[in-house]
Amino acid sequence: EALPPYPDPGARQRVRLAEDGYPCFMDCHDLLSQQLQSAQYQPLLLTSSAIQGRLGEVLGFAHQAMATENRYLLGGTHAPNYDCSGLVQAAFAHVGVWIPRDAYQQERFCQPVAISADDFRLLRPGDLVFFGMPERCTHVGLHLDQGRYMHSSSSSHGHGRIAVDALDQRDTSPVASHYRRHLRGAGRVVRCHDGATLP
């Protein structure tokens, strides 16, 4: 029986990442150079309290990313250039906590935390703050303290890099005001993603 031909090295193949279930495309050339694993992927599943104990390191990673020269990069998931959800995912992955890739997936994955632009008392350091339109989350930030959040934002509505803004109405900067108008809510990471496809 004839074996199927090798894929065209210039073509792209749809794949799903085991760690976070993220569907994406890879160049066939890159796929051919990957080492195949015979063992099934086993995610590290941490308890909520174990995750909470690692949030200081999550925030430390994000602060280091901000201190390094960077720019916003759509689809960016590696240092130094991140998009919003790439920064958040990388900060948690740094401490062994896998969360989904995109902001709308991260919103669905988290335990909801009730907030508004006028009342964010329930937020804890390390919570995620979500922004977007009524029908979909399009942006995410990492809560630091007292309504201040760190995020990587594009230059069209943000800083074009990683920076800190505040939910508090007293922060009247154009960027903070823009995102405050599009605040959707917040969430807390209380589990590790097991790689299953999210709804």
Q: What is the secondary structure topology, with strand pairs?
A:
Elements: E1 12-16, E2 23-27, H1 28-32, H2 48-52, H3 55-67, E3 77-78, E4 81-82, H4 84-93, H5 103-109, E5 111-113, E6 128-133, E7 136-145, E8 148-152, E9 162-166, H6 174-181, E10 183-188
Antiparallel strand pairs: 1-2, 3-4, 5-10, 6-7, 6-10, 7-8, 8-9
Helix pairs in contact: 3-4
Overall geometry comes to: globular
Q: Helix proportion of residues, in percent?
A: 10-25%
Using the coordinates shown, work out and report the CATH topology of the largest domain: endopeptidase fold (from Nostoc punctiforme)
Would you state the CATH class of the largest domain?
A: Alpha Beta
Beta-strand content:
15-25%
What does this structure look like?
The structure is a single chain. The protein has 199 residues and is of the alpha+beta class. The chain folds into 2 domains: 8-40, no CATH class; 48-188, endopeptidase fold (from Nostoc punctiforme) (Alpha-Beta Complex). It is 24% helix and 25% strand. It is built from 6 helices and 10 strands, in the order E-E-H-H-H-E-E-H-H-E-E-E-E-E-H-E. The chain has helices at 28-32, 48-52, 55-67, 84-93, 103-109, 174-181, and strands at residues 12-16, 23-27, 77-78, 81-82, 111-113, 128-133, 136-145, 148-152, 162-166, 183-188. The strands form 3 sheets. A 6-stranded antiparallel β-sheet has the order 5-10-6-7-8-9. Helix 3 (55-67) crosses helix 4. The longest helix is centred in the first third of the chain and has 13 residues, at 55-67. The protein is globular and about 55 Å long. The model has no long low-confidence stretch (mean pLDDT 89).
